[in-house]
Specification:
Layout: H1 7-16, E1 18-20, E2 36-38, H2 54-57, H3 59-66, H4 77-86, E3 103-104, E4 116-120, H5 125-130, H6 136-148, E5 151-152, H7 155-161, E6 166-172, H8 186-203, E7 207-211, H9 213-220, H10 232-235, E8 239-242, E9 245-250, H11 253-258, H12 263-279
Parallel strand pairs: 4-6, 4-7, 5-6, 7-9
Antiparallel strand pairs: 1-2, 3-6, 8-9
This protein binds iron/sulfur cluster.
Iron/sulfur cluster binds next to helix 8.
């Protein structure tokens, strides 16, 4: 995977309102300093709220209590999909229309290793409706940025166009929406987390991009001691670890839709992830 953006990728980013500057020969050590400027573009606000830190702050003590959903750690992909679809392990099963398992190359019945895994936070109402993560304006923004990286959650189309540079699986920490898009309770997060952990174990991503506060907390609680108290901005710009998998933290696209100048920062974080993969 190369960081040299072709004309089409640059045009795509320009359309998104992201203006990119990259040096001619970018060495991995320089990547944390990729300079990206953003400009505002008109877009309607996404319905998904910006998740507060409150629920996640209380996650750790609750995790010890709820860590094991029966048998999840041994499930294969089809069993995991079925388990999520039928799950009634927390009260959110009563208000959801659908569970949201994930989308992308590994979403069919045959799991396979992926290059990228994108982890969001909580399915919004539209995601619940469509049983698909990252839909609406935030989903369009994510898809456009992934496409600029040569990635797509509909890989066949990318393959046919000859643009595919890696496979991607997209999911959320929580598999059910919350009533009124409220922040999830710590026990709901803790109860659902084994599903995400098993997804990661099965698709073995080369890199994970954690989008948003809840995703960062869920993935980095074991490796960043003060993750819950650190502003998300402080977690950006470096490569963390979830077990042995590299993790890059960035803002959630729904937040970016409400704070358009931050768009360039998300692009910079994706560049960091691309560069890290390139250096592997
Ligand atoms: S949020 Fe997770 S744990 Fe709760 S019912 Fe849905 S799938 Fe089960």
């Amino acid at each position: 995977m190369t960081l040299n953006l072709d004309t089409r990728q640059r045009a795509m980013l320009a359309e998104m309102g992201v203006r990119v500057w990259l040096p001619q020969s970018l060495e991995p050590v320089e990547l944390a300093h990729v300079q990206v400027a953003s400009q505002e573009a008109s877009a309607s606000p996404a319905p998904q709220p910006v998740r507060s830190q409150t629920a996640a702050q209380a996650l750790e003590p609750v995790l010890a209590q709820f860590q094991a959903l029966e048998g999840v750690a041994e499930m294969d992909w089809p069993a995991l999909q079925a388990s999520v679809a039928e799950c009634r392990a927390c009260g959110l099963c009563n208000s959801r229309k659908n569970t949201v398992f994930g989308a992308g190359v590994a979403a069919d019945a045959t799991p396979q290793a992926v290059d990228w895994m994108i982890v969001g936070e909580v399915p919004a109402a539209a995601e619940d409706e469509q049983a698909t993560p990252f839909v609406g304006d935030a989903g369009v923004l994510l898809d456009n940025m992934l496409r600029a990286c040569g990635l797509s959650r509909t890989p066949d189309a990318e393959k046919e166009s000859g643009r595919e540079k890696g496979s991607v699986f997209v999911t959320n920490v929580l598999k059910c929406t919350t009533p009124g898009n409220r922040n999830p309770k710590p026990e709901e997060l803790a109860q659902c987390l084994p599903y995400l952990q098993r997804q990661i174990a099965l698709v073995q991503p080369k890199i994970i991009v954690a989008m948003g506060r809840l995703a960062a907390n869920a993935l980095l609680q074991a490796t960043v001691s003060d993750v819950q108290s650190l502003p998300l901005g402080k977690l950006r710009g470096q490569v963390h670890r979830y077990n042995n998998t590299p993790v890059v933290v960035t803002y959630h696209p729904a937040y970016v839709m409400r704070n358009l100048p931050e768009k360039g920062k998300v692009w910079a974080d994706l560049c960091l992830a691309m560069a890290h993969l390139q250096a592997l």
